[in-house]
Amino acid sequence: MFASVARVTLKAAAATVLGTGVYVVSYPVFCKQRSEKVVVVGGGSAGIGVAAMLQNEGVKNVTIVEPNQTHYYQPLWTLVGGGLASAKNSQKDMKDVIPKGANWIPKRVESFEPDSNKVTLDDGSTVEYDYLVVAVGMQTDWDAIPGLEEGLEKEDSGVVSVYHPKYCSKTWQTFQSIKNNRSFNAANPATFLFTFPPTLLKCAGAPQKIMWVLEDTLRGEGKRDHANLTFCTPGASMFGVKHYSEKLEKMRVERGVHAAFENKLVSIDVSNKIATFLDIKNNSNVKKHYDMLHVGPHMSAPTFLRKSPLSDSSGWVDVDKHTMQSTKYSNVFALGDCTNTPNSKTAAAVTSQAPVVVHNIERSIDKLPLDGFYTGYASCPLVITRNQVLLAEFGYGGQLAETFDRKNGKFPWKFIGTEGYLQQRFFFFLKETLFPYVYWNLWTKGYWYGTNGPLKPNVVRAMEEAASVSASR
Ligand SMILES: Cc1cc2nc3c(=O)[nH]c(=O)nc-3n(C[C@H](O)[C@H](O)[C@H](O)COP(=O)(O)OP(=O)(O)OC[C@H]3O[C@@H](n4cnc5c(N)ncnc54)[C@H](O)[C@@H]3O)c2cc1C
Q1: Which Pfam families does this UniProt record tie to the protein (predicted)?
Q2: Which is the closest atom of ligand 1 to the Cα of 73?
């Protein structure tokens, strides 16, 4: 009887702290113990976090299938590329982040067989499940640009990318050697190109975050006029959300950064340091010389996922964009970069999705209708100098969802506001210091809920709010 009471909740304290209504604190002392077997495929940011939350909620039979021995906190890579963090702080041994009590199978999933509730591994063995959570992330297609792999591997090529644990360190090293090279000066400036891909990209802000940090570094050392910087993108603006794009465009003009809009990188001539772009408007190729070329690589759904019965025609796991349940199999859920939900693909989005997935799995086990609701929240801390961040936060359709907004933000954080130097210094502190700490110490242990901090959000309440928002439109 005592156990079936399900959990001890501490609503009042959280409600007082956040002031926005009823929240349920995330530390149930006694949870309803559930014996259903949940298999989580992928031990990245989403897989580890959701597995830990499931365990904390009393879903004890959790298995993680993840082939890599190393787990990465990828948001740090931009700072590594800008010389603001060390690559070693972005990684830990996988065994050290697998939640206590969870079973880890260090193998790759080859295929899904949802009709018989099992997955097949790369050694041919199979794993059965009652519930499946797919969290396999995105695939980086390094070979999509001829010359890119060669350039990244060649030490003095000038070709770099923060989208890889090895090449993010190379980014800072290459930048430094160009910055300190005396043959570059105001009369003979070095050329830096920063490209954005024509595909979906995780952390779509990263290709320009690294640009802003490096630009600020040159400025700080009195060498800004020793360099020409150009942001090259197939798009027609700086960012996907108008509110932030306008701010970034203004900053671009003020800081003398060139833009090559509607320009798509198609190949790299590594020996001659020439990048070829397709000028989309004029449908012609343009060749640009570079001293340093930072590439935002092509990305896609993982190849093995594309042919799976769980996926849509583009290869992403087909889920309901609010409940995160598969549109085809009721005992399958997915979250993170691998789903077809139209949110910006970030770890911040994952922190909002994970409690929804956990809640809905519990509802499903209890044979109740799913009422956990993801609103599309994502955030992108746009690092704009070596100590400032423009914090972009938005939901589905680019609707602003700013935690610190003076009018619509979350109490008590709303008093901080979003504009101003001190605010941007504070957001930098979050990005550089707090979030990495929280990631390793709370998120991977299932005790961090994004904008709600360590307090578990009432995802059902979010659904009621969202329903009333759409009804009032
Ligand atoms: C340079 C950079 C900067 C970023 N900056 C930010 C930021 O500032 N803020 C932010 O919120 N987000 C940021 N992100 C995005 C964030 O890191 C991702 O959105 C997040 O990691 C997504 O988590 P995921 O679990 O879906 O994917 P991942 O963390 O990539 O994990 C996927 C996992 O699935 C495993 N896997 C793949 N295939 C299989 C298979 N067949 N079988 C089993 N396992 C498999 C992989 O090995 C991997 O461990 C950044 C990313 C990059 C690269």
Answers
A1: Pyr_redox_2
A2: 17
What does the pLDDT look like over 177-193, one tens digit per residue? 999 999 999 999 999 99
**β-bridge mates for residue 374, sequence order:** none
The DSSP string of 61-116 is -EEEE---SEEE-GGGHHHHHTTSS-GGGGEEEHHHHSPTT-EEE-S-EEEEEGGG
Residue 203 falls in the annotated catalytic set: yes
For domain 141-300, is the CATH number 3.40.50.980? Answer: no
β-strands 70-72, 227-233 pairing: unpaired
Distance 73 CA to ligand 1 centre (A): 8
**Cα gap 176→297, rounded to integer Å:** 22
Q: Structural domain boundaries of the chain?
A: 3-138+301-471, 141-300
Q: Is CATH 3.50.50.60 the right assignment for the domain spanning 3-138+301-471? A: yes
Ligand 1 centroid – CA 406 distance (Å): 32
Ligand 1 binding pocket, CB closer than 6 Å: 41-47, 65-68, 74-75, 77-78, 108-109, 135-137, 162-163, 202-203, 206, 302, 304, 336-338, 345-348, 350, 381
Helix (H, G, I), strand (E, B) or coil at 408: coil
Q: What is the pLDDT of residues 304-354, one digit of tens each?
A: 999 999 999 999 999 999 999 999 999 999 999 999 999 999 999 999 999
* pTM for this entry: 0.93
What is the rounded CA–CA span in Å between residue 110 and residue 12?
47
Q: In the annotation, is 31 catalytic?
A: no
| Residue 347 near residue 366 (C-beta atoms within 8 A) | no
Radius of gyration of the chain (CA): 23
Structure tokens at 116: 């018989």
Q: What is the DSSP letter of 466?
A: H
